């Protein structure tokens, strides 16, 4: 476990200089993440810090993201074609190195918020952030209300349902491949969820295949 320093005030101030669209997105993610976190008695400070920190570098240029990824030693050759993928890991590295923030669950949640991952799939703070980031009220409506209600009962099941939806959407509408991190997160969630009673994926939905 890391220290429990509270950097929320600094994070709120950070967004003063960022685009309005990003500020509003982060605020909506915060609101929804706190609502979901409250349903599961997650520490408010951790959930809010993860939500505030997740998109610190979302509005930065590809050149900036690649340079900073090199600086912090987190370069991944398979990400150079899509440098935006660095913004989560970079935010976590920045908070760790520049703010001395070491709460591991929160840093992992921030680093993996775009696609979750094998390591973060069962981390409740990461699940809350992943879900809230994808279905906050400013995002296109899918079946967001259903996911929110499911997430209030079980974060793992909601994360799995959401990943199934995202994978189906990518396969049907996008030219890029389904990210490996997303597939691996779903594998973990399915393995863990299959041990629980009374849950079947919503196979009746066409986008759930
Ligand atoms: Fe993001
Ligand atoms: Fe975001």
UniProtKB/TrEMBL annotation:
Gene3D superfamilies: Hypothetical protein af1432. Keywords: Hydrolase. Pfam families: HD. Residues 18-147 form the HD/PDEase domain. One of its GO terms (molecular function) is hydrolase activity. InterPro entries: Diverse_Catalytic_Enzymes (IPR051094), HD/PDEase_dom (IPR003607), HD_domain (IPR006674). The keyword Membrane does not apply. This is Putative HD superfamily hydrolase involved in NAD metabolism.
């Amino acid at each position: 476990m890391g220290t429990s320093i509270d950097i929320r005030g600094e994070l709120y101030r950070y967004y003063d200089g960022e685009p309005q669209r990003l500020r509003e997105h982060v605020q909506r993610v915060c609101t929804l993440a706190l609502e979901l976190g409250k349903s599961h008695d997650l520490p408010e400070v951790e959930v809010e810090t993860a939500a505030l920190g997740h998109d610190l570098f979302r509005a930065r240029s590809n050149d900036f993201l690649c340079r900073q990824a090199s600086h912090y030693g987190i370069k991944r050759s398979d990400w150079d074609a899509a440098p935006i993928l660095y913004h989560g890991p970079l935010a976590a590295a920045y908070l760790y190195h520049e703010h001395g923030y070491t709460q591991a669950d929160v840093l992992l949640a921030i680093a993996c918020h775009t696609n979750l991952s094998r390591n973060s799939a069962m981390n409740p703070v990461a699940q809350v952030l992943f879900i809230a980031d994808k279905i906050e009220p400013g995002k296109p409506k899918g079946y967001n209300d259903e996911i929110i209600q499911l997430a209030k009962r079980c974060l793992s099941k909601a994360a799995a349902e959401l990943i199934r939806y995202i994978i189906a959407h990518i396969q049907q509408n996008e030219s890029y491949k389904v990210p490996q991190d997303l597939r691996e997160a779903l594998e973990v969630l399915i393995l863990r969820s299959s041990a629980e009673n009374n849950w079947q994926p919503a196979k009746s939905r066409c986008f759930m295949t």
